[in-house]
From TrEMBL:
Name of the top EC class for this enzyme: transferase
Metabolic or biological pathway, per its Swiss-Prot or TrEMBL entry: Polyol metabolism; glycerol degradation via glycerol kinase pathway; sn-glycerol 3-phosphate from glycerol: step 1/1
NCBIfam families: PRK15086.1-4
Source domain of life: Eukaryota
Region (Disordered), start-end ranges: 795-816
UniProt keyword annotation of Metal-binding present: no
Entry protein name: glycerol kinase
Entry GO CC: plasma membrane
């Protein structure tokens, strides 16, 4: 009743809310009288072992397999069924209330819901934790109720995990708030971690370690594994989502026990271990202080220290405690992986998740990445997300954002199909030729991308140790420095995830990587390879105008995300839930972007007043980068076939693109992906040019572009390479404006859109808006600064070649 009073007190003081979600200790139970609402006894919590003798008796009778087959759970005092049976056999008045029809039995959520909403109800997930619910038929099981001696008529109605459970009245009955979600706390955490797809897993390190992985919409066959197949949640109109559950009884409780016996006084003692792992030195700790949980399920097991000697110090023992908890957790993870595949990333929360030694040891042990969400109240976050879902109040643009990328890809694939058919049926046709040109364009793309990918470790190291500290001294972050020169889809996204100070700065860095990073390591190197030398200066003029506008586009995207309260994924995933909200205001955004604004201001001054110097510096940078890329590739090839560098230096200094099969396939995959996109983009470009002349002419008139230049402004939204393909038939103004626009807007509807739709689908529209508007700013800057210089250069080239400028419409004089 005290908990209930605290809930009501909280609701009375939290102000106006749209909905309420309820997360609870799943296996703890209450029995109460429906007439008075009073409990018959104290709540019996999940750790209570008073029914151990009952469990042993049922196990001796061979009942365990029956329970496993129907409920998916082993016989254990942990679950609710034996507790409810104990109430029926030991609590005075229980059977009398049953006879009168007023006995109510349920997990904690059912008791709270009865008092808050006046209903006797629970949810699928909570019911599945009782050992009385058949996870196949999704109903209370009469046979299980008979086995445990629980009257089925006293159990609550089972409902979906989201929906309208009832209305909670405020003090004085002045307002009501709907209760729209109910779930066990551990599974609320699972949902809050964004674990919603098969293979995704989370671990909560509290008193014990609680592991849940998503198995899919079918019940996993965990027979003999010691794991618990469980129903994670069931939402209206959807199939139930099942998972695997495993618990380690002692995690933080083992740490607390160590403090109780005097092994430490401050939690800082569990850090800065000077020696190699204790287990590698023969010292091991088994944290079975309350028995062994999954996959052994042995309550009689006891804790153990092995390998103690006269040389063992207090610090060694503390180190071995952390390692023992990690080893037990790894044991459950490996058991899960034998039943269903587990992903490469595991999300963790709870006290131990903040201990660097512990998480690194666990990561090394299981050979998987360990990530921890920035929001420490992950259970509350998960149930809040479900409550919003139950209210039907998910972000209205979420579905649209996720689908835009698919629509564009389908259009490009249509171009691929039409181009391929034309190249077979009529190879000499324009459509067929453009399909082949798109495939051929993969060459320069691969040269640039393979070289850059090979050198990413060196580039990353150079950035983080040179301009990174400069960015930090200006109040920015090293991740923002990194993605100023590394594209988001060429390793930048993953790099920023590792080095960013927090999730807000990670997302900010990601936005920069779409424009600045993509320009430095992709657009500029590819342009210099694909374009004729005489066009390099126009590439430089357009690129610099585009670079100046980048921070404005990033600022626009950030403000759209923040002001519209759009959630983002806070881990690298293609399927997890978006559950992080940025907390960046306008001033903070300016602070983070201040180094970029400062650089762009200086770039604008140089471009305006020292144009020739800036163009020459740009071209020198391009030549250095081109030479760097070629040398890196040459080094990789030599290393692959001879091992020369490891012989000379003892190690391989480049990311081993040609020496490492995984990285080689990664480079081929990215270049091949872009090639596939171009195979469809070039035919679409051709069809646009042929059948959409009216809108092209409209754009051309507005920006004083030729028809080809107007087409380039549209095609840049798919991929800048399509524009480079059109350069030969463009004027200087066309070239500069298309490149300026492309620095910010290139691939807005192409591979950047596909990347965003995969990794951050809720950000599709903000990123598109930021890139497009930054591109518009770049065009304005180019018209003001770059175009006059480009036309001057074009005129000069024409005069030196004895020709007139194509923009004057004059014809050269013939001499006799």
């Amino acid at each position: 009743m005290e908990i209930l009073r605290n809930i009501r007190n909280c609701l009375n003081h939290c102000g106006v809310v749209d909905a309420i979600g309820l997360a609870h200790q799943g296996e703890s139970i209450v029995a109460w009288d429906a007439q008075t609402g009073l409990p018959l006894c104290n709540a019996i919590i999940w750790q209570d072992q008073r029914t151990e003798s009952v469990i042993q008796k049922l196990r001796a009778e061979g009942i365990e397999e029956v329970v496993r087959a129907r409920a998916g759970l082993p016989l254990d005092t942990y679950f609710s069924a034996s507790k409810m049976g104990w109430v029926m056999n030991n609590v005075a008045g229980a059977r009398e209330l049953l006879r009168k029809g007023t006995l109510r039995l349920g997990t904690m959520d059912a008791f709270f819901m009865f008092h808050l909403c006046g209903v006797h109800a629970t949810d699928y997930n909570s019911a599945s934790r009782t050992s009385l619910f058949n996870i196949h038929t999704l109903q209370w099981d009469e046979e299980l109720c008979r086995i445990f001696g629980v009257p089925i008529e006293a159990l609550p109605e089972v409902r979906h995990n989201t929906g309208h459970f009832g209305d909670v009245r405020s003090e004085g009955n002045t307002t009501t708030t709907p209760l729209t979600a109910c779930i066990v706390d551990q599974f609320a955490g699972t949902y809050g971690h964004g674990c919603v797809e098969p293979g995704q897993m989370k671990i909560t390190f509290g008193t014990g370690a609680f592991l849940q992985s998503i198995a899919g919409t079918d019940v996993p066959d965990a027979h003999g594994s010691g794991l618990l197949p469980t129903l994670c949640w069931k939402l209206p109109g959807e199939k139930p989502v099942y998972g695997l559950d495993g618990g380690v009884y002692n995690a933080a409780s083992a740490v607390n026990w160590a403090g109780k016996i005097g092994l430490f006084t401050e939690l800082e003692d569990f850090s800065d271990f000077p020696n190699e792992p204790a287990i590698a030195r023969g010292l091991a700790f088994v944290p079975a202080l309350s028995g062994l949980g999954c996959p052994h399920w042995d309550r009689s097991a006891a804790g153990l220290w092995a390998g103690l000697s006269l040389e063992t110090e207090r610090k060694d023992m503390l180190q071995s405690i952390l390692e023992g908890i990690a080893v037990r957790s790894a044991e459950v993870i490996n058991a899960m992986a034998r039943v269903r595949p587990v992903g490469d990333t595991i999300s963790v929360d709870g006290g131990l998740s903040s201990n660097r030694y512990f998480t690194q040891f666990l990561s090394t042990l299981i050979q998987k990445q360990i990530v921890s969400p920035s929001n420490r109240e992950i259970t509350a976050q998960g149930v809040a997300m479900l409550a919003r879902k139950g209210l039907g109040n998910e972000h209205p643009l979420k579905a649209v954002m996720s689908e835009i990328g698919n629509i564009i890809i389908y259009i490009i694939m249509a171009g691929t199909l039409l181009g391929a058919m034309a190249s077979v049926v009529k190879p000499e046709s324009g459509l067929g030729k453009e399909f082949v040109n798109g495939i051929h364009a993969i060459g320069p793309v691969f040269l640039a991308q393979a070289g850059i990918m090979a050198a990413i470790p060196i580039i990353s190291y150079a950035i983080t140790h040179t301009i990174g500290p400069l960015f930090e001294s200006m109040g920015s972050d090293v991740s923002i420095a990194a993605l100023s020169v590394i594209a988001v889809d060429m390793g930048g996204y993953q790099l920023a995830d590792v080095i960013a100070a927090n999730r807000d700065q990670w997302i900010t860095a990601m936005l920069i990587g779409y424009t600045s990073g993509a320009s430095i390591v992709y657009l500029i190197p590819v342009g210099l390879v694909m374009l004729q030398k005489k066009d390099h200066k126009y590439l430089a003029l357009g690129a610099m105008a585009g670079l100046i506008s980048i921070p404005f586009g990033v600022l626009i995207s950030l403000m759209l995300i923040t002001l519209n309260n759009i959630p983002v994924r806070e881990i690298i995933s293609t399927s997890s839930a978006a559950n992080h909200y940025l907390s960046i205001d306008f001033v903070n955004a300016l602070h983070l972007l201040s180094p970029l604004f400062a650089f762009c201001f200086l770039l604008a001054l140089g471009l305006k007043y020292r144009t020739d110097l800036m163009v020459n510096a740009f071209l020198l940078f391009g030549k250095v980068m081109d030479a760097f890329i070629k040398l890196v590739l040459a080094a990789c090839i030599i290393q692959h076939f001879t091992g020369l560098f490891t012989t000379l230096f003892g190690h391989w200094i480049f990311d081993p693109l040609f020496a490492d099969e995984k990285e080689l396939y990664r480079a081929i995959e990215i270049a091949g992906y872009i090639g596939i996109m171009l195979a469809g983009t070039f035919p679409i470009c051709y069809l646009f040019q042929k059948y959409c002349q009216r809108p092209m002419k409209f754009i051309g008139r507005r920006l004083k572009l030729s028809d080809t230049g107007a087409l380039g402004m549209v095609m840049v939204l798919a991929n800048i390479i399509a524009v480079f393909h059109l350069f030969a038939s463009m004027r200087a103004r066309d070239k500069v404006l298309c490149v300026a626009f492309g620095i910010c807007a290139q691939a807005t509807l192409g591979d950047h859109l596909a990347f965003t739709a995969n990794f951050q689908p809720t950000l599709v529209l903000p990123i598109m808006a930021g890139k497009f508007l930054a591109g518009a700013i770049a065009v304005a800057i180019a018209i003001f600064i770059s175009v006059p210089e480009a036309q001057r250069m074009e005129q000069k080239d024409a005069q030196s070649a004895g020709e007139s400028s194509p923009e004057t419409g004059m014809t050269p004089q013939r001499t006799q």
